[in-house]
Amino acid sequence: MSSATVTAAADPLVTGRRRADPRLPAYLIAGLGALVVAIATGRPELAALGAPFVALAAIGLLDRTPARPRGAVSLASERVLEGDVVEGKVRLDWDGEAEVDVMLARGLGVTAVDPAPVTGWSLPRGRGPVTLTFQLRARAWGIHDVGPFWVRVRRPGGMLMLEQKLASVPALRVLPRSLRLNRILKPSDPRAAAGMHLSRLRGQGTDFAELRPYQPGDRLRGVSWATSARLGKPWVAVHHPERTGTVLLLLDAFFGRDRTGAEAFARAARTAWAVASVHLQAQDRVGLLSRGRTTAWLTPSGGRRARWALLDELLAVGGAAEDPWRSEHRSGRVHVPADALIIGITGLEGPWFLSDLLHYRRSGHTTVALVIDRADLLPAAQTSLETAARRIWLARRDVEVHRLERAGVQTALVTNSENVGPAISALRRRMKASQHQARPGVALR
Amino acid sequence: MTARRIAIIASVVATGTAVAAALLGGQGFWFRAFLYFAIAAAATVVPALIVVQVISGALLAAGLLLMPDGPSSLVLLPVVAGVVATAELLGVAARTRTSFGRDPGDDLRRAWISALIGGGVFGVVALVARFPGPGGPVAVVLASAACAAIAVLLVSGGESE
Question: The whole model's pTM is what?
Fold first, then answer.
């Protein structure tokens, strides 16, 4: 990916906060308390008892000159693919001699590679500047707030320390791994713009529709000379015009907050990106509606700009999904174009997503659902109780799938081993079969 | 050295301190000594309890000092040094217990020096308090202030090297 170094602001983000070591209040209370009681009671032994604590507290407070830590964080690249390792550098400086702890605080969407398991250092007594290198593995797709870096500075032997949020790591854009997909779903009513779907209308195109007798006004190049010679009068070949379709990806962002939930959501996002990419290549207009941990709405549009906008929205959704402090919410339904093919991508976790899908189906949209399989993410059942729980979980998923299919929403399971290609093929077959049942007289490709 | 080992050393020092106090105080001090040990042991897990450990240690030593026919104040030197050493070791253990590696060598060295300073200051002031002269708390307070100043100067000289 990009090799440019991205550096975060070097100024401290917040004013440092002084914190006392737990020994300091202990020594002050014990020492001063003993001295006060000694004076009050006239017992010199108590003063002797308080003296060492006061002395140690005085030593701990001796050097209070501000260390003024400062620094910057840089990443070798701000765009990486899922699973890539990105290198970074922390440049730190401070005044005088000090013991410094440095730590990357949040680390959302990434895993520490070096140092591990936490991106942090405890620097021995010394002077700045220092340069620290680190490596992070991009664990989940999305735009991730990896930082900020916190420093804790303490003078050697001191009992006061300064904690300061020093600099933010630049946002890391982790792009989803590409899934191999070369099949697309056919939108119900392609639009009157150049594309690769067949319209039910006849017109200029490359896909044969039918032969009919020549009528005044027909172009000569449309005449089928072989048929005309055979039948003794002029016949013309009619073709389907190639049109674009409108596809709306309805991404279910209701996933569990545990690791399996995050992985399942990552699979959903990869599926969404794969489906969107292949439809955009087919000149379709693709939109995105996401519900759950975050809400995203991108009106259907086509072309390269739409591709980047869609990727940006997906990355923002992915970043939000990794943020454990986000609350789930559900906003109202949006108006989608009448000709849009709704593709729901769901793990069937959230209760509202199903009703949304069914709502669009009842509104007359062609609606399909790609169900993300997360059975392989579940821990292996060790006891009969766990086996039963697993079976109940799978049965519940089957019930939801049947509920969708009864309402006319064709579904297909996206498994981790087979990816999205077979699921799209299965959906195409089912859509074709249902269209045959619904409109037996209409020729389908 | 790991935080766990440092915590074990702190527990051993606290045990020694408690046993010494119990032996000096006699029958009535066993419970107080056990209480002190329990607090020190709890502070190995919860660093915020270091405050309670130091105060309970000071109260333990004060109880011994104020006992009628109690031991001489200079005999209490190991108890005071033990309380300080335990607190310092607990502090080091808390600092070492981070998720990233920390070498506690410097901190450990300082912990033992602090225990020596604590014991030394206590011994000097206790000795000054026994001298005949103006007597009373004023002399002792002056002596302790002088000891504190000396300790500060000594340590500040060492830091600036």
Answer: 0.63
